[in-house]
Specification:
about 65% helix, mainly alpha, globular
Length: about 100
Amino acid sequence: MSNATERGRLGDTLMREFAQYATALAEAGFNWATAWPTDKWLPGSRLFWLHGRFLLARECANLIGHSFDDEEITQFHREHLAYVAMFPSGPPSLNGG
């Protein structure tokens, strides 16, 4: 596997883990954009677990030089939410099916 492929897969994993974490924050009533960097979740709680998964994915991506700062991660998730709002039934298809 090439380094570019690894970077892409780890970047995808990082953003998928972040999306799950940010979604859980919103479902719990937090403003995800300001609450996500916190590490004050109760041990054993779902938010503690999701935060840990995100941090692990972030560290793995950093190890191969695919790093994002906090603002880039926040902006990516804002764009992801806008995309989901535009296509609530899933990504559009070129073949109409």
